[in-house]
Amino acid sequence: MITMKYDGHSGVREHIMKMSDMASQLKGMDMAISEGFLVHFIMTSLPSQFGHFKINYNTQKDKWKMSELIAMCVQEEERLKVEKPDMAHLTIGPNKKSFKKVDIPPNSWWIDTDASIHITNSLQGYLTSKRLSKGERTITLGNGTEVEIEAIGTLCLILDTGFIMDLVDTVYVPVFTRNLISVPRLDSYGYELKFGNNGVSLFYNSCLVGSGTLHALDVFKIYKAEVENQLNRRIKSVRSDRGGEYYGRFTESGQHLSAFALFLREHGIIANYTMPGTPEQNGVAERRNRTLIDMVRSMMSNSTLPEFLWGEALKTAVHILNRVPSKVVPKTPYELWVGRKPTLNYLHVWGCPAEAKIFNPQIKKLDSKTISCNFIGYPERSKVGTELKKLTSNEVSTPMMEYGVTQEVSCNENENVPTTECDYDVGLESDPTSYDQAINSENSTLWLYAMEEELKSMKDNEVWDFVKLPKGIKTIGCKWIFKTKHDSKGNVERYNARLVAKGYTQKEGIDYKETFSPVSKKDSLRIVMALVAHFDLELHQMDVKTAFLNGDLHEEVYMDQPEGF
Question: Is the residue at 556 inside a domain?
Answer without folding.
Answer: no
